[in-house]
Amino acid sequence: xxxxxxxxxxxxxxxxxxxxxxxxxxxxxxxxxxxxxxxxxxxxxxxxxxxxxxxxxxxxxxxxxxxxxxxxxxxxxxxxxxxxxxxxxxxxxxxxxxxxxxxxxxxxxxxxxxxxxxxxxxxxxxxxxxxxxxxxxxxxxxxxxxxxxxxxxxxxxxxxxxxxxxxxxxxxxxxxxxxxxxxxxxxxxxxxxxxxxxxxxxxxxxxxxxxxxxxxxxxxxxxxxxxxxxxxxxxxxxxxxxxxxxxxxxxxxxxxxxxxxxxxxxxxxxxxxxxxxxxxxxxxxxxxxxxxxxxxxxxxxxxxxxxxxxxxxxxxxxxxxxxxxxxxxxxxxxxxxxxxxxxxxxxxxxxxxxxxxxxxxxxxxxxxxxxxxxxxxxxxxxxxxxxxxxxxxxxxxxxxxxxxxxxxxxxxxxxxxxxxxxxxxxxxxxxxxxxxxxxxxxxxxxx
Length: 447
What we know:
The chain is α+β, with helices and mostly antiparallel strands. The chain folds into two domains: 3-227, PmbA/TldD superfamily (PmbA/TldD fold, 2-Layer Sandwich); 237-445, no CATH class. The chain is 23% helix and 38% strand. A hairpin with a 2-residue loop joins strand 15 and strand 16.
């Protein structure tokens, strides 16, 4: 029997079930509730000394009730029977005074998950704080040994979290599952004279046994910091830009935000009404695969209990539809896509196969390799894009020197259409799995 923080899943199901029954007694025509428990440990070491040891233990319940088309929600961190009952009563009181909304309500019963796949998401890490501290020390020490020019550190961290969420609604859905996430990270600073540069590396996984070794993470952080020494500005120009995988994920994130149902019905998207339109070159494919075993974005059902399914979001560069929960689907006159709460494992692929990094650098030729972005200069309504950046200037497919204190700019619509190639160096450390992305032209603002 799975348990988190000493509480078994059947006990959480009982809390959800009782809160739904009480809501019904109080006159709610529909209701949904979820209970979650989280526990975790995070340790940080800086220059060999322990900076923090943090324990996290969170619990909470949220309930939403519907009186016809009137909606009320309330939440509590106290799972005692009395607190749960008071929370249900508060939600019902709120619902009686809210305006009607024709699109409110639970997901349609036929959309709910009935067969719950086992996705192997729960891998507890027996990690005493002493071992976490030692792992962080090993990580930082390995990085600091890389080069004598590594003079300082922002620290190495080790984190382990486990949680469980149970969701139920008055359509008879009641399911839950535990999951884990673990990570190791390191940030180091290198210096020569007045030139000081920082860089980082990290690993994350459901199963701690699949993490990159702490020494390897530290070494990569150190190597990356040293490689940035001697960074310079470049002149303002238009050039080809290659996004490294860890920053390419954000580029795809802007696209996913633009095709979310909420952005569409609020008319706050630069891809408004773009379903069925060419939004990428014809070789680009985006696939949602929610049931990849152990993946960080996997889930058997969404935030409303709707079954998650494999879906091709972009085929031949053409947008196949939006990212919808029940409410946004109703606002648009469509059906939910099982994405209440977001997407689940978006795979960005090239129909021609991802390019090896060496070939991708040759394809870049002369231009900018971006490894870090700063600032939030993205307008979701117009698609205008302007971010501070650092990385490396590349000539004839070879990195020649590091670059900093520049801005890269364009419009996301144009940037997506100008994708020239996608790499096979896929980063799997998140819910969007993507390799390097080469854009044929952007504006670089420098000296």
